[in-house]
Amino acid sequence: MTTMLVGLVTNAVSDESRWPGWLGWLQEHAWFSFVALGAAMAGLTALLAGLSETRPPTPPGRPEDGAGPPGAAQVLRSLPRDTAAFTDRAAELERLVGSVRASQERGEGLPVHVIDGMPGVGKTTFAVHAGHLLSERFPDGQLFVNLNGHTPGRTPVQAGEALASLLAAAGVPTQQIPVGDDVGAVTEARAAMWRSRLADKKALLILDNAASYRQLEPLLPGGSGCLVLVTSRKRLVANEEVVMSVDALPPDHAVELFVRLSGRPADALGRDVVEELVRLCGCLPLGVSLLAARLRHHPSWTAEDLRGRLVAARDRLGELHAGERAVAATFDLSYRDLAPERQRFFRHLGFFPGTDLDPHVGAALGEVSVVVARRHLEALYDDHLIDEQPGSRYRLHDLLRDYARGLAAEGEGMDHVQAVRRVCTYYLAALAVANGHIVRSGAAVPPAPDDTSRVETPALESRADALSWLETERANVLACVRRANGLDLYDLVVRLAAAMAPFLRQAGPWDQAVGLHRTAAEAARHTGDQRARGDALAELGVVRRFMAAYPQAIEALNDAVMVYEAVADRRGKADALNQLGIVWYLTADNEDAARAQTEALALYRELGDRLGQANALADLGMTHRQMSRFDAAVEAQSEALAIYRELGDRYGEANSLRDLGVAHCLMGAYDLAARRHQEAFDTYLELDDRVHQAYALNELGVVRRLTGDIEGARTAHNQAMTHFTELGERFGRATSVRHLGVVERVTGDATQAIRLLEEALDAYRELGSRGGEAASLSELGVARGIVGERDGAIEAFQRGLEILRDLGDRCGEAEVLNHWGTLLFTSDEPPAARRHFDQALMLARDIRCPLEEARALEGIGRCDWTIDWPGHGVDSLRAAVTVYRRLGLSASVDDIERLLV
User: Fold this and answer.
1) What residues pair up with 23 in beta bridges, in sequence order?
2) Is 554 helix (H, G, I), strand (E, B) or coil?
């Protein structure tokens, strides 16, 4: 459980200018691999029920391997299209619609409706048709999830995976979807979030192909206004569900469906023959549709011709049970009517490890061109042997998938392996194209294998195209990895994991990425490819860091470093050291962080890796700033900025500008700091990155407050808070609330300041942010002192100082000492106050923090004046005026000059 409690282990101090320049969250176009049966989607830690609601932002220096987070999109209309094959089920529909209408009119909670029945009976068709009929009653959305409870070759979808899909579909950004190693706790957290998301909503949810009640129970909304339709081959009996069994069609309805789909007049068919045909296929809608399609595609056949063929097919399948034989016979009849090349293509579709496919995948499976594959797929759809899905994609019915696999297994066992190898090779080629759009400028793109030159890949012309394709194919690629691993195709497992890594870094879900990279590391061990094993371990460490599982991240990254050293891979070692430095930075192990980044920087320079140099320099600059080494921070960050500009890396440029602004603010160069933050904000605006816009706004607000523009500061922090609230970014929101508390304190409303600061303090503690906690405690001490709560103020200062000293933040320490000295001075304890100011002055001068130096000098001067050392007091006050003037803080200068007069 502890690995799930995502704490932003921080080094924040009293102003946002003193906490790390967190880089934004990796957002995955929504992960929707099971929703809408593979419909294409545009770009996806809030743990409820006692868990944290935010993940750590991307650590210092840059977003990971992508030009920023893909936008999360709400996809609340995902029902498959209604089918013409639906035939009259008036009684069942009337019962369902009547049940829903009655519950809504009485204001009662809607019960779950479980639709069960044998394979091929039309459960899904019935549920989808009912969903379309009822859609107007559920204006907040209609969602469809295939749980794969009985899909051949696929394991049932786990509840946690389905919940991730649903949350993404409901507009939850990827960074808020709970992750962790405790599957049960993650599922509970996601279920709680899902229930919260649908509270007071009127939405329709179809859970198709459920394996058990246990699988679907966590997916049930908590609100009373949502309707859930469940389809299953099993009778899932629970307490409050309405169970509706869908049986085979009545003979009259089956005949009507056959006539309609055959495209022939009823009197031209022969009623007796049609009745026998539908009886031979068990009056199952799937079988009736297939038979009618056969007749429609053979104008020269009579219904009697079709009957003879069906009887022969049933005889061939006589070893099957009666129900299976009824459906399989219709499959066999349709299959044998195909041309040999189409038969082979159909058989190979059964080898596909994924759920839905497009012509490019079909081409890889069938060893044909995309044009030919598209022609085959369209023909198979016309023959009712595959279903069409949104986005020009296709899917085999579960029974047809099983039938195709059975045909292939009869004489093409080795071809199974080759088909999987071909489709994996196709995905590697397509992933290379997609990564070319999403990987940042200068970063290495996992190459496609040498044998992909003849592979046809989809036309991905932009980053948006690449993200949409990746979202659509994510589940299929991961299914291919599992199948390849099961077939001992370890080289493909390693390559696919590496090719998916850039996308999973930014889109998540990260617990899914952990499983992938673990599998890849083990596969590389089988192949003996130590370099690939190092790559997998390094990716595992990065993802563990995103999950705030820092000990596991350090372990994986240290293992990667050792593997790279063993094979003399300097670039791999540099990357792993860079990532180790980031983890140590986040855990405030500053010396280790600086050592790792310095070593990584040296390796990157030896290799001539410009992006690596920029990243290491940026991260080193962050570490130096965190250690109050401001000159070193500016030097490193300035060099990083120059390289990012050389490479045309706009995100790197913006991030370095923002961190330079933070350092300049701490060094008292407020005009320069404001310019840097504005430049960063403008770039983030251009990149449509709202998370980083909000960070930059908070930084701008700090500068405005320090330079006397109080209303400008309030506006900036309020705008940042709005962004963070809408994005669900609790850490950023807590920081905005804290800064607004400081604004209220400065403008004289100490009571409101205390309320806001206590809210921020609670949030930081829940998130595990020690730096944020220290910053809030420092300001709380000031505000409590103003309202006369002296003991509470001292307690806040003491706790804040302990944290800051533990973190090694000397600038923050100096600020707390100055605040504490001011409290003691106003409490008529000037000697004790002077001791605090003396300590603050020593710290501020040592780290070259002019604002705290000026505050300490002012405090010392006022204490000496009061203690009856006016000469000493005047000297200190005049020294403070000199520093304040250099900083451009005229209000502080005026205060002291009035005292001197």
Assistant:
1) 58
2) helix
DSSP 3-state assignment of 80? Answer: coil
Return the closest-CA partner of residue 533 out of 551, 556, 506.
556
Alpha carbons within 13 A on the beta-carbon side of 230: 27
Distance CA 214, CA 638 (A): 56
Amino acid identity at 338: L
Residue 53 DSSP class: B
DSSP 562-592: HHHHHTT-HHHHHHHHHHHHHHHHHTT-HHH
CB 581 within 8 A of CB 596: yes
pLDDT bucket at 551, cuts 50 / 70 / 90 = confident
Alpha-carbon dihedral of residues 836, 841, 846, 851, nearest 10 degrees?
A: 120
- Contact partners, residue 901, CB within 8 Å, separation at least 6: none
pLDDT tens, 724-761?
887 777 778 999 999 999 999 999 999 999 999 999 99
- The C-alpha atoms of residue 134 and residue 142 are separated, in whole angstroms, by 10
Structure token digits, residue 726:
């809408």
> Which of 734, 750, 730, 732 is closest to 742 using CA atoms?
750
Q: Are strands 227-232 and 204-208 parallel, antiparallel or unpaired?
A: parallel
Which helix (H) or strand (E) covers residue 852, if one does? helix 850-867
Residue closest to 220 by CA, chosen among 355, 109, 101:
109
Measured CA to CA, the distance from residue 401 to residue 697 in angstroms comes to: 54
Q: How far apart are CA 815 and CA 232, in angstroms?
A: 64
| DSSP-derived secondary structure for 7-20 | -------SSGGGS-
510's CB contacts (< 8 A; 6+ apart) are 179, 504, 543, 546, 547
d(CA 680, CA 655) in angstroms, rounded, equals 7
pLDDT, tens digit, for every residue of 533-543? 999 999 899 88
Q: What is the DSSP string of 91-107?
A: HHHHHHHHHHHHHHHHT
Instruction: State pLDDT tens for residues 448-507.
Output: 666 666 788 999 988 889 988 998 898 899 999 999 999 999 999 999 999 998 888 777
The whole-number average pLDDT for the span 606-620 is: 94
In 135-244, alpha helices (H): 159-169, 183-198, 213-216
Question: Given 3-state DSSP classes, what are the helix, strand and coil percentages for the chain, each rounded to the nearest 5?
Answer: 65, 5, 30
782: tokens are 């000031």
- Please, which residues have CB within 8 angstroms of residue 300's CB and are 6 or more apart in sequence? none
Q: Residue 715 CB: number of other CB atoms within 10 A? A: 16
328's enclosing H/E stretch is helix 322-336
Q: Higher model confidence: residue 744 or residue 133?
A: 744
Average confidence (pLDDT) over 542-553: 81
Residue 510 has which token pair? Answer: 């990260």
Classify 39 as helix, strand or coil: coil
Taking residue 897's Cβ as centre, other Cβ atoms within 10 Å add up to 13
**How many Cα neighbours within 13 Å face the side chain of 101?**
10
Provide the 10 A C-beta neighbour count for residue 348.
25
158: Cα separation from own chain's centroid:
18
With bands split at pLDDT 50, 70 and 90, how would you rate the model's confidence at 390?
A: confident
Token code pair at residue 682: 């403008």
Q: Which amino acid is at 285?
A: P
What pLDDT shows up at residue 245? 75
Spatial contact of 516 and 493, defined as CB atoms under 8 Å apart: no
What tokens appear for 766 in the block? 């829940």
Count the neighbouring beta carbons within 10 Å of the beta carbon of residue 199: 13
pTM tops 0.70? no
- C-alpha 376: how far from its chain's center? 36
CA distances from 316 to 313, 319, 475 (A): 5, 8, 37
With 60 as the cut, is the pLDDT of residue 317 above it? no
Of the chain, the end-to-end C-alpha distance in Å amounts to: 63
Contacts of residue 62, defined as CB under 8 A and 6 or more positions apart, other chains included, come to: 23, 440, 615, 618, 651, 652, 655
